[in-house]
From TrEMBL, chain A:
It comes from the Bacteria. SMART domains: PP2C_SIG. PANTHER family: PHOSPHOSERINE PHOSPHATASE RSBU, STAGE II SPORULATION PROTEIN E-RELATED. It comes from Paraliobacillus quinghaiensis. InterPro entries: Bact_Sigma-Reg (IPR052016), KaiA/RbsU_helical_domain_sf (IPR017944), PPM-type-like_dom_sf (IPR036457), PPM-type_phosphatase-like_dom (IPR001932), PSer_Pase_RsbU_N (IPR014787). This is Phosphoserine phosphatase RsbU. Residues 123-335 form the PPM-type phosphatase domain. Gene3D superfamilies: KaiA/RbsU domain, PPM-type phosphatase domain. The lineage of its organism: Bacteria, Bacillati, Bacillota, Bacilli, Bacillales. One of its GO terms (molecular function) is phosphatase activity.
From TrEMBL, chain B:
This is Anti-sigma factor antagonist. Residues 5-111 form the STAS domain. Pfam families: STAS. Belongs to the anti-sigma-factor antagonist family. Positive regulator of sigma-B activity. Non-phosphorylated RsbV binds to RsbW, preventing its association with sigma-B. When phosphorylated, releases RsbW, which is then free to complex with and inactivate sigma-B. SUPFAM superfamilies: SpoIIaa-like. GO terms for molecular function: anti-sigma factor antagonist activity. Keywords: Phosphoprotein.
Length: 337, 111
């Protein structure tokens, strides 16, 4: 295809060709001309100006009314052209913001990254998928080399996007700074509650479940700050049980206390932790019920833990019209011996 | 999301009733916050929020009620939620917010 040239001569010959032949090719070239004009930031009124000039050269005897009306059109297009320029500027700004958010998102990932630990006798699977670029969900594994305990935190910041992500980083660093001897779940939640209450916006709060597994006595101790209840899977009976651990969300008042629970873990039992991104999603107009989630988990529970969490996620992702309104996080821990 | 939230306010002396209709989520929560928070800043006011016609609320909605509660403490007013549907009530129960926010105890069905 011959290059469309952005000049008066070219436009004039296109116009002449069209007026004489009503040829489709000329129309097509006019379209190319306008696309090229946009690429070169040529305003609409400039094109009209070119049109008027070309028309005058082709038909020097235009009536005064036609002449005036063309000038009128030219004036009318000026503010349209300005709006278009503004739109272009906004588009550029938007892409700048977009790239800044990407930088923030990858920084968040670095800050909050947690290593899924390899622990003898435990099979651990974890998946966390943000609904937007910045995640408000968080999970963290804390291993202690001295006594082999494993701490597991799963949390959901309410409030989305960047503020939620910033709050999550604060939580992580507070947890890291707690002294080693305060690693029991109720103490951790009580301390975090005070941090959150003092430091975040009144309408923002965090739900968190914290568990500590001690392989020495095969005991799992846990406490919850208003977090969506997880499930306990009894391997020998192939049955699920809800992990009940009531407790107030972090940040609602400064005086909350958290009751700590304990249970022995048997071989082949699983602890399943999730965030409400899993239960707050819906298909079309229908909500997904907790039972339904449980059915899906049940279907895959026999798989290795990492495969199981991925299959559960894929199940929901596959559903038509399924929309994640929130971040999705699921952790499965199985005791293998 | 095209689902909206309607807020209707009726004031009778110190009792202010907010009747909500629709959904409370990240998109509509700011509207609820703008309507609810100023009402809790009137000392002595009893703010009643009727949630009978709210069939969906996510955790962003809980955040609005937490900030309203904090505001009632600051301005010496009261907040009470009534006619919660089961799904909405469950959110307050899971988060134990029902232990610090006054919630009318009548159990309601609803879808």
């Amino acid at each position: 295809m011959e290059n469309t040239k952005l000049d008066l001569d070219n436009y004039r010959s296109l116009l002449k060709e069209y007026l004489l032949t009503k040829n489709e090719t000329a129309l097509y070239q006019a379209e190319q001309f306008s696309k090229l004009s946009m690429q070169h930031n040529i305003s609409p009124e400039e094109i009209i100006h070119v049109h008027i000039e070309a028309l005058k050269e082709l038909y020097p005897d235009l009536t005064q009314e036609v002449n005036d009306s063309l000038n009128f059109l030219l004036e009318a297009m000026i503010s349209y052209g300005l709006a278009y320029q503004e739109f272009q500027t906004l588009r550029e700004k938007q892409s700048e913001l977009q790239s800044e958010i990407s930088v923030a998102a990858s920084m968040q990932q670095t800050l909050l990254s947690t290593v899924k630990p390899e622990i003898k006798g435990l099979d651990i699977g974890a998946i966390s998928v943000p609904a937007n670029q910045m995640s408000g969900d968080y999970y963290h594994f804390v291993t202690d080399k001295e006594d082999d305990t494993l701490g597991i935190a799963i949390a959901d910041v309410i409030g989305k996007g960047i503020p939620a992500a910033l709050a999550m980083s604060m939580i992580k660093y507070s947890m890291d700074s707690f002294p080693e001897n305060q690693r029991n779940p109720s103490a951790i939640l009580e301390n975090l509650n005070r941090v959150v209450e003092r430091n975040v916006d009144p309408s923002m709060f965090i739900t968190m479940f914290y568990g500590l597994y001690n392989p020495g006595n095969e005991t799992f101790s846990y406490a919850s700050a208003g977090h969506e209840p997880g499930f306990y899977y009894h391997g020998d009976q192939d049955e699920f049980e809800e992990i009940e651990a009531r407790g107030l969300v972090l940040g609602a008042t400064d005086q909350a206390t958290y009751r700590q629970f304990e249970r022995k873990i048997k071989k082949n039992d699983c602890i399943i932790l999730l965030t409400d991104g899993v239960t707050e999603c819906r298909i079309g107009d229908r909500f997904i019920e907790r039972d339904e989630i449980l059915q899906v988990i049940k279907k895959y529970i026999q798989l290795p833990a990492q495969e199981a969490v991925e299959q559960v996620y894929k199940h929901f992702e596959r559903l038509q019209e399924f929309q994640f309104r929130d971040d999705f996080t699921l952790i499965i821990i199985r005791k293998e011996v | 999301m095209n689902i909206n939230l309607d807020v209707e306010v009726v004031e009778e002396d110190q009792t202010i009733t907010l009747t909500l209709r629709g959904e409370i989520d990240a998109y509509t929560a700011p509207k609820l916050k703008d309507a609810l928070l100023p009402l809790t800043k009137k000392p002595g006011a009893e703010v009643i929020v009727d949630l009978e016609q709210i069939n969906y609320m996510d955790s962003t909605g809980l955040g609005v009620f937490i900030s309203a509660l904090k505001s009632t403490k600051e301005y010496d007013s009261e907040l009470k939620l009534i006619q919660l549907q089961d799904r909405v009530r469950r959110l307050f129960e899971i988060t134990s917010l029902d232990s610090i926010i006054t919630i009318e105890s009548t159990v309601r069905g609803g879808n």
